[in-house]
Write a sequence for this structure.
């Protein structure tokens, strides 16, 4: 049953305090984390773990990202209402829901068929309707829906995919964890047609961004 109770809300407020103490400041982002019922994005047997600030297995060898990481990446995007945001790695849809709470128009790509089908069906059931969820390869982005105000990659990328850079608006931001075993959180801002500015924000660990669909 898709139930969100006061107990869950209390646990979420506690989670918000935790990520605040780790450095998340943006009010809109904290508000979004306080609203999205993360326990519904996980299998029911794991509900007790839903409001710990940890990643968790969601099947198909993938994980739902740690709330702190979701908040950190979301903060870097500086989302304004109606921004067009592309997410690479739909996974459980948790990050997608956080983006929708911020009133972004969300496009999301997932390469695992099983997760794609499950999450596409699930999100509208809990009131989160993305503009589009696509089964495909995030390395290619979504040229038909480009350009984007922001692109967020939620898997560890060995390098920055060129296609994603070309699908940013001028002024648009790409937030991407770059690296093999450990990833450096990287923000790339498109300053001009061929001009990009790079900022780095420390180490994170993600499941790898993979080629080929399955
Ligand atoms: N945003 C998700 C995080 C899921 S983990 C959440 O909040 O739950 C990363 C996801 O990226 C996995 O679901 C994985 O299948 C997906 N992924 C990996 N490589 C990909 C690629 N090349 N294109 C699109 N998705 C990819």
């Amino acid at each position: 049953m898709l139930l969100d109770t006061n107990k869950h809300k209390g646990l979420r407020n506690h989670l918000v305090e935790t990520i605040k103490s780790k450095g998340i400041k943006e009010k809109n982002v904290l508000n979004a984390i306080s609203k999205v019922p993360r326990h519904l994005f996980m299998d029911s047997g794991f509900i007790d773990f839903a409001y710990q600030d940890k990643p968790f297995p969601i099947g198909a060898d993938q994980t739902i990202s740690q709330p702190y990481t979701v908040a950190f990446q979301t903060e870097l995007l500086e989302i304004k209402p109606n921004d067009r945001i592309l997410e690479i790695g739909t996974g459980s849809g948790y990050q997608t829901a956080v983006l929708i709470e911020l009133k972004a128009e969300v496009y999301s790509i997932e390469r695992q068929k099983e997760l794609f089908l499950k999450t596409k069906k699930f999100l509208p059931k809990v009131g989160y309707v993305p503009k589009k969820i696509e089964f495909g390869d995030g390395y290619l982005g979504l040229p038909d829906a480009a350009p984007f105000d922001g692109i967020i990659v939620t898997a560890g990328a060995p390098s920055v995919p060129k296609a994603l850079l070309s699908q940013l608006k001028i002024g648009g931001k790409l937030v991407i964890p770059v690296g093999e075993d450990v990833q450096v959180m990287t923000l790339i801002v498109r300053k001009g047609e061929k001009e990009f500015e790079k900022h780095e924000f420390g180490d994170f660990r993600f499941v790898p961004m993979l080629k080929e669909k399955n």
